[in-house]
Design brief:
The protein has 513 residues and is α+β, with helices and mostly antiparallel strands. 40% of the residues lie in helices and 25% in strands. The protein contains 18 helices and 23 strands. The radius of gyration is 26 Å and the shape is globular. Homodimer.
């Protein structure tokens, strides 16, 4: 099965089992907008709790807020979004399809990397234990050729992006002989900038309405509340403010399911530090955030850092945490050192003094900021992509299973009576009632036990609890574990503690601190 086929199966699985639906589907949907179903919203909420608790409970100096989506229009002038929140777009005249010029070039670079790795892998198989990978990468003609082509395009792309040279971006695409994936031609238009913010009107009558924007990020709500939080919370530098909320971007090239959408959710934390200490804290959060991702147990090799070639106008350091999706390594989180740009600009545009008095140094200054920003929807897709498995069992059957970490699984346990009679359903309901106040529990009595197991495997339920005739005699039940499919007897009186230990966030947090 190719990665593309796997991804299509995952998308179909998400709809079939109530994770994610196309929005407004009865009206043929709305491009790049999706709804979360009954399983998806539980997974999404659990991911948000994992992030929120890791920020606010594991760090005494981080607190949370929930700022409004609508903000004063000057906010977005101060932040630079009105003047600089643009994507370089290019059209193919034959297919009429529009692309981000930088993404076309990044895809080209990725293909060159793939060609290099294929050559290396073939050589490794041919030479076996005697293979000198470093020497091969430095001397093999094909590898050297691919590397030279890649590096030349990469160097030109970085320079063009930093200089905002749109003509050069188009010329690089032509020189690299990049074709439209749809038409297969190189009939490209000029590259032009497109602002990504959604505009709307606020006012009781159209004539007097003012233009405002749907926020394209949640960070600015934190910055404009810096003094409110610092003073009311008596916060001392360094400290952080966390927020989870919706953001909106008019993405022209929305693609890859929920990876890039027009309405999405962010989890952001802005960490305020002394000027001069920002790079130390940047490195701290770079390592800490990677630990948070890897604690999920999807394999360290599927994560990597990608340092930015082009820094945003406000940043002096930036890196991405990338995860290996079925469509390649892509960003799931960004860590940025934003300097004092945001607070400084809001002070300038608002006319208000935004400073912190440091009692330890006796100085007043505008704090510098280190940001961690993660997309909730991308995290959902990351978890589903990593967890989706099709396994062939010893008896020849195939099962589809989501190996979602128990702590963030949508349903923590399913309760089954072996049969629908003889008091077994009544006891099963009693067990459900015992657990439901603490955990999301499902009850199922339809079909055979095997089919019920398969349904729970498909939604990622870590534990299945079966009530049988022995349960009536000795007050024990059969507990079946999703990943190993092993079963054992557990006393009903011990179930709550066992489930709690299995699904606790503690196991994840212990890998972070």
């Amino acid at each position: 099965m190719t990665q593309d086929e796997l991804f299509k199966k995952l998308i179909a699985h998400c709809k079939e089992y109530g994770f994610i639906f196309p929005s407004s589907e009865i009206y043929d949907g709305l491009s790049a907008v999706y709804d979360y179903g009954q399983m998806g919203v539980e997974l999404k909420n659990n991911i948000k709790k994992y992030w929120w608790d890791a920020m606010t409970k594991l760090n005494e100096n981080i607190v949370g807020i929930d700022a409004a989506i609508f903000m004063h229009p000057k906010t977005w002038e101060a932040s630079g979004h009105v003047g600089a929140f643009n994507d370089p777009l290019i059209d193919n005249r034959d297919s009429k399809k529009r692309y981000r010029a930088d993404v076309l070039l990044e895809d080209f670079l990725a293909k060159q990397d793939e060609k290099i790795e294929k050559e290396v892998e073939k050589a490794r198989k041919r030479f076996g234990e005697s293979f000198d990978e470093k020497l091969f990468r430095e001397t093999n003609p094909r590898v050297v050729e691919h590397r030279a082509k890649r590096d030349a395009v990469h160097e030109r792309m970085v320079a063009a992006l930093n200089d905002n040279d749109l003509e050069e971006l188009r010329q690089i695409i032509l020189d690299a002989e990049i074709v439209c994936p749809i038409s297969g031609t190189r009939n490209w238009t000029e590259v032009r900038q497109f602002n990504l913010m959604f505009e709307t009107k606020m006012g009781s009558v159209a004539e007097g309405a003012s233009t405002i924007y749907l926020r394209p990020e949640t960070a600015q709500g934190i910055f404009v509340n810096f003094l409110n939080v610092q003073k009311t919370g008596r916060m001392k530098i360094p400290f952080g403010i966390a927020q989870i909320g919706k953001a909106f971007r008019n993405e022209i090239v929305a693609r890859q399911f929920i990876f890039r959408m027009r309405e999405f959710e962010q989890m952001e934390m802005q960490f305020f530090v002394r000027p001069g200490e920002e790079l130390k804290w940047f490195d701290h959060w770079r390592q800490t955030r990677m630990k948070w991702h890897r604690a999920l147990g999807f394999g360290d090799e599927h994560y990597r850092f990608h340092d930015h070639d082009k820094l945003a106008h406000y940043a002096n350091a930036a890196t991405d945490v990338e995860f290996e999706f079925p469509f390649g390594f892509k960003e799931v989180e960004g860590i940025h050192s934003r300097t004092d740009f945001d607070l400084g600009n809001h002070a300038k545009f608002s006319g208000k003094k935004i400073q912190y008095y440091d009692t330890e140094t006796g100085e007043s200054y505008v704090p510098y900021v280190v940001e961690t920003s993660i997309g909730v929807d991308r995290m959902v897709l990351q978890v589903l992509s990593a967890a989706y498995k099709e396994e062939r069992l010893e008896n020849g059957e195939t099962r589809t299973v989501l190996n979602i970490p128990a702590a963030i699984a949508p349903v923590k346990a399913a309760i089954f009576p072996l049969v629908k009679k003889d008091g077994l359903p009544e006891l099963a309901h009693q067990i459900k009632d015992m657990l439901k106040f603490d955990y999301n529990i499902q009850y199922d009595e339809k079909d055979s036990i095997g089919k019920r197991y398969r349904r729970q495997d498909a939604i990622g339920t870590p534990l299945c609890i079966t009530v049988d005739y022995q349960s009536l005699e000795d007050k024990t039940v059969t507990v079946r574990h999703r990943d190993s499919m092993q079963q054992h007897r557990v006393a009903i009186a011990d179930l709550a503690a066992m489930v709690g230990d299995e699904v606790s966030l503690r196991k994840l947090f212990s890998k972070i601190v």
